[in-house]
Amino acid sequence: MLRSLATPLMALAILFAAGTAHAHTHANAKGVGLGVAAGAAWSGTELEGFDNRDATGLSWGFFVDIPLLDTFYISPATTIYELDLGKGKKPVTDIDLNFKFIVPLHSIKVGAGVTAGLTVAEETYSTHMGGLGYLSYNAVRNLDLFAMAQYKRLIREGQEVDDMHLFVGTMFRF
Fold first, then answer.
1. Residues near 173 by Cβ (< 8 Å), separated by ≥ 6?
2. How do residues 102-160 score in pLDDT, each as one tens digit?
3. Do 65 and 99 sit in the same domain of this protein?
4. Quick one: CA torsion of 63, 69, 72, 76, rounded to 10 degrees?
5. For the whole prediction, is pTM greater than 0.85?
6. Which end of the chain is more exposed for a tag (fewer CB within 10 A), N or C?
7. Are residues 138 and 168 in the same domain?
8. CATH assignment at residue 88
9. How far apart are CA 156 and CA 153, in angstroms?
């Protein structure tokens, strides 16, 4: 009799543990955000052998905020912009993993962090790394307005390229 009850009790215990884990995970996910932003990208790097470069271009992207603590977010992002690497403006895509250290000040959040990721430009893959500054304002209960500045160093074959990105956008918080 005890053996016949063991299997259903074990299944019930597993379901209870899974339900509790899901509720706990969902409770910690408060504040996860999904955002979109637009802005500009600028590169001041003087490439050897090229005089006439258009160093600025429009930029836009998608951003995610995953708060691990009230003061630390992991923020994956994808941005698209144009960059002149000596052959005219070409499309560039960045896949970033941002680590933001946040100082919450009531409805304003100020932060700084580091970024690293992959850049697709000139039909090649390169890495980039850099730093960022972040400012967010909670306009309504689950909608933030934010601004972010990123400095990135594109590590590529040949000369490395430094560029700056400025974004303004909205972040919907779940």
1. 31, 32, 33, 65, 142, 143, 144
2. 999 989 999 999 999 999 987 889 999 999 999 999 999 899 999 999 999 999 877 88
3. yes
4. -30
5. no
6. N
7. yes
8. 2.40.160.20
9. 9
